[in-house]
């Protein structure tokens, strides 16, 4: 069996900006950061790790033909959109907007502290779909030393793709219109996890829990198929068929890890 190939994407090589109200890192080309070598990977188009200052944020703006999801790490994120959804998202919440033919929304820090979240975009497999909105919650306890499937394709097993009207909260992963499955874990020091990957591509990201731009010298350290990664680092994965990915926490603290399986 061929081994999974790991191509590191180190934190210091990502696009980044400090706008005072927003401190952000871009894994892929975004806004003023453009790098043709890092434009997208499979259906994955954007991974922005954002810290938005209290009572500020992204004003109302429009999107179409993207699947847009937010993974809240710390603080509270206030969401409003043109579908009349208003919600305050907290740690453990995953919010997914299937923009389809077009939506407008705003995303702001709620309350008196900054919000730290991952903003992720993927390309839909089908165009001109009606816009939809979903939220899910996954507790720290669920993620402890275990992979939790937080986003999965609409036709995947266990996905409640019809929970759309009335209550936006359903059970299981949020349904995405892309061939993409997203997992999350809180991996304890000294522990390891294995995940069967469908492939042929994947991406892994270590969340910057220790602070903005601190991943180079501080924070959690993991190994992905033997490749060391610190907070803020990620890696492209090239996956042969029927492969298991092994991730080890070789540091001295819990690592929050996001993993994408890109079919």
UniProtKB/TrEMBL annotation:
InterPro entries: Pirin, Pirin_N_dom, RmlC-like_jellyroll, RmlC_Cupin_sf
Residue span(s) of domain Pirin N-terminal: 16-121
Xref: SUPFAM superfamilies: RmlC-like cupins
Transmembrane segments: none
Similarity remark: Belongs to the pirin family.
Protein name: RmlC-like cupin domain-containing protein
